[in-house]
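Lab notes, practical 5.
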Amino acid sequence: MKLPHPFSLRRLGRSTRSAFTLIEIMVVVAILGLVLSMGMPSMVRALRKEGMRKAVDDLLEACKAARSEAIMKAAPAELVFHPVDKTFEAPGFPSAKLPDNVSIDILGVNFIELEQSDLAKVKFYPNGTCDEFTIVIHSDQNEVRKITMDIVTALPDLEAIR
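Output from the prediction step:
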């Protein structure tokens, strides 16, 4: 029995390979482009830090930087606040300022309220502990956040009040 030549199957209309056509690929690319273009503004907004989100992230990072510095250097480190100016700084963390639309409601260190003072210092110790610290900030959009420090572990705890 004679076998047919491999090219003879194509002539009979029986292709052994299947593929996507150029039109199908272009439709898929167009749909992907449309979905990405619709989702891009919300993705950019989520990545950009503004207002309350920036304030909270900066405060948490400053607390963690001061804790790390105290442990790594085996010496106390301080997180320094200037409540009137709405600025703060810590070793290993650049000086930062709360955004204009965010203000400090409560700033307490060792159960003393210091939100109206010129200077407030929170000490972090090499054994991983810290002073008692609480700060409550609010934005002009009625967002209220409370950050407290666990005095045993010196880790910040964030609570959304509103």
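Observations recorded by the TA: The chain has two domains: 8-47, 51-160. The chain has a mean pLDDT of 87.
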